[in-house]
């Protein structure tokens, strides 16, 4: 199954093909690139001291601030929330073959680079040829094996199915051949030389400093006039400073988890908005399946019947999530993928059920303490880096819930990030809370929790519990490489049953993208009723939002 395209998105795609206009924006915007207030986009990451605009470098200023996304555009936008649909962008049309090993794109006509040169299919071919030739490091594991122009189209061929990596392919920043062919090393060049910072995007560089970066509207943008004439990017030292800036109006748009957001931000101004955009991922309790007490599926199942996911949402996440109760581990956005057997098969907080599971497996209670079949008290630690306030709160909730309900002593462990990261990779932990690999479908949960491919040189980058079952591994590979929806659905059924039976991890709640913004000057923002994009300005969909914004009347 392709990433979903709703009827509205399908109609929008058709309109794009017919008119060559940007989704939701274009000539309908009335800002004419000159009037209107600037928008200040903020992050809490501290100052960035080195100037670099290279969109392929994760630690460049352009990537960390996020402004590279409004200069360099992708072929299409894959919505990480809402309908999970795909909207063509620099491409007028994108089409995958049945097994997702080949992508055909029709580059948009009438597009110019910001230096006035025409954007053509040759630029798309050149961009992906950088990976094919080895000149650009393939950090996203795209696995391009061939790229060629075919009439008005460009055909990309890959070494394996990209069904679970459509976003990574389609979000690749497209760069101008006439500039980049002379760049000796695209892996390191900061693009600071005169004339190098050229894109097709809605904004162009105006000023760069370590305090802030300013961009102005591109007067020749293919999507038409933009309501917002200027973007300012700033970075504050922490969330507290960022919150102060948002409340005072020094910052207009950000993504951050802000504790007590109603009192600290929303109550300050009726124009202040907070958008929670659910994704297929989840905040998940990973358990070390290689050691006590988590080497016993019965203990894991008992925890799944005890942990209060609604408390996670209401207290730890302060409402910024949705609980995940289904035994398959799949959240609300993926309900259509749940097989009939599990449609209504949900966990709940049922301590009696949990105790029955434990008793049947040979557990007992001594002086209120849960004791395993070997006569040892059940206890473990849950590890989350210090300062991750939402998950730190969840640690305390888990400790309280499990001791009260089941007599399990849970120790709260809050190391620095480095220690936590090393422990999860090396298997030196009892339990941790972590996110999932983002694939836009059910595969993300199951590869993250049950796929041995993530264990390399005895270090884990996912599947931290080190689950390894040949039948499950085969189903994961089938899901990722299937050439039909039926084949993929068959594999998904195997994965859902294995997850429900083995409880290799416990998803707590949807891991959302967050966005804080004010509507005092502009309307057209995404909303709970219209999640056409996430409200997070660091996501690829920021260009779509900026083409939709219009001055507030």
UniProtKB/TrEMBL annotation:
Position of the signal peptide: 1-22
CDD domains noted in UniProt: PBP2_TmCBP_oligosaccharides_like
One GO CC term on file: periplasmic space
NAD listed as a keyword: no
Gene3D superfamilies on file: Dipeptide-binding Protein, Domain 1, Dipeptide-binding Protein, Domain 3, Periplasmic binding protein-like II
GO BP terms: peptide transport
Domain Solute-binding protein family: 87-448
PROSITE patterns attached to this UniProt entry: PROKAR_LIPOPROTEIN
Keywords: Signal
An example Gene Ontology molecular-function term: peptide transmembrane transporter activity
InterPro entries: Peptide/Ni-bd (IPR030678), SBP_5 (IPR039424), SBP_5_dom (IPR000914)
Protein's name in the database: ABC transporter, substrate-binding protein, family 5
């Amino acid at each position: 199954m392709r990433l979903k395209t709703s009827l509205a998105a399908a109609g929008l795609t058709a309109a794009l093909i017919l008119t060559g206009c940007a989704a939701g924006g274009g000539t309908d915007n009335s800002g004419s690139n000159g009037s209107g207030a600037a928008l200040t986009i903020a992050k809490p990451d501290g100052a960035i001291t080195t100037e670099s605009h290279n969109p392929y470098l994760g630690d460049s200023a352009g990537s960390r601030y996020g402004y590279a996304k409004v200069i360099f555009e992708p072929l299409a936008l894959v919505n990480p929330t809402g309908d999970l649909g795909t909207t063509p962008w620099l491409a007028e049309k994108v089409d995958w073959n049945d097994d997702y090993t080949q992508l055909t794109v029709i580059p948009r006509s009438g597009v110019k680079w910001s230096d006035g040169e025409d954007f053509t299919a040759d630029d798309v071919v050149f961009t992906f040829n950088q990976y094919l030739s080895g000149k650009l490091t393939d950090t996203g594991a795209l696995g391009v094996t061939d790229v060629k122009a075919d009439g008005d189209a460009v055909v990309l061929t890959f070494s394996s199915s990209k069904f679970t990596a459509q976003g990574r392919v389609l979000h690749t920043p497209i760069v101008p051949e006439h500039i980049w062919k002379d760049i000796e090393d695209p892996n390191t060049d900061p693009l600071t030389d005169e004339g190098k910072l050229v894109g097709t995007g809605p904004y162009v560089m105006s000023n760069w400093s370590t305090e802030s970066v300013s961009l102005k509207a591109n007067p020749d943008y293919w999507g038409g006039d933009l309501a917002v004439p200027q973007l300012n990017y700033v970075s504050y030292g922490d969330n507290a400073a960022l919150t102060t800036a948002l409340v005072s109006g020094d910052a207009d748009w950000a993504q951050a988890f802000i504790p007590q957001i109603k009192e600290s931000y929303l109550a300050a101004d009726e124009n202040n908005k907070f958008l929670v955009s659910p994704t297929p991922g989840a905040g998940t309790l990973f358990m070390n399946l290689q050691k006590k007490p988590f080497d016993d599926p019965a203990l894991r199942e008992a925890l799944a019947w005890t942990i209060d996911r609604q408390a996670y949402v209401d207290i730890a996440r302060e409402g910024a999530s949705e609980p995940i109760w289904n035994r398959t581990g799949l959240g609300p956005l993926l309900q259509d993928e749940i097989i009939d057997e599990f449609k209504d098969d949900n966990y709940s907080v049922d301590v009696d059920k949990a105790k029955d599971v434990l008793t049947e497996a040979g557990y007992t209670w001594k002086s209120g303490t849960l004791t395993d079949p070997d006569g040892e008290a059940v206890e473990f630690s849950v590890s989350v880096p210090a300062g991750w306030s939402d998950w730190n709160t969840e640690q305390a909730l888990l400790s309280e819930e499990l001791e009260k309900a089941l007599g399990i002593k849970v120790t709260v462990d809050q190391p620095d990030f480095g220690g936590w990261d090393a422990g999860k990779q090396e298997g030196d932990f009892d339990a941790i809370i972590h996110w999932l690999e983002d694939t836009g479908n059910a595969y993300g949960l199951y590869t993250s929790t049950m796929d041995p491919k993530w264990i390399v040189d005895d270090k884990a980058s996912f599947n931290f519990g080190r689950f390894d079952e040949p039948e499950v591994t085969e189903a994961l590979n089938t899901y990722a490489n299937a050439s039909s929806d039926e084949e993929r659905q068959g594999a998904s059924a195997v994965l859902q049953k294995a997850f429900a039976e083995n409880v290799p991890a416990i998803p707590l709640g949807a891991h959302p993208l967050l966005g804080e913004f004010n509507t005092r000057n502009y309307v057209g923002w995404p909303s709970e009723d219209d999640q056409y994009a996430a409200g997070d300005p660091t996501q690829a969909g920021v260009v779509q939002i900026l083409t939709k914004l219009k001055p507030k009347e």
